[in-house]
Amino acid sequence: MCQFPVVDFTCYLIPIELHYFICVKGYLGFSGSVFTGIFCVHCNSNISSNLRDILEHCRLCSFMQRTDVLKHKYVCYACSYATYYNGNMKNHIRIHLGDRPFICKLCNYTATRKTHLNVHMRNHEKKLNGIF
Fold first, then answer.
1. What GO cellular-component annotations does this UniProt entry give (predicted)?
2. Domain boundary assignment for the chain
3. What CA dihedral angle connects 23, 24, 25 and 26, to 10 degrees?
4. Sign of CA dihedral 78, 81, 86, 88
């Protein structure tokens, strides 16, 4: 039982009522005193915002439904996407996180995958060569 005074709280993100501050903190995904905002929809546990920690959780969470354990080594913490490959899951997680680590040096374009940036750079080359 929580040791904090009873406080009625209705979550604005997900329709649920919570009655203790510590429960609210746990539900929303606080890590110590830092809010990460990343929690598993399968087990409701808070996950560090570190990509390596997220991948580990996607591989180890026992609450995630795996239709075929041999084919689905990783299941996404935020949806039902599943894959066997670490790299595929890493690319998928970037969509949920809004992480766009690949940056164009010629304009403000950013991408979740290096292949997307390469296609973008080819368009710059075409413009510079007068093909476009």
1. nucleus
2. 8-99, 100-131
3. 50
4. negative
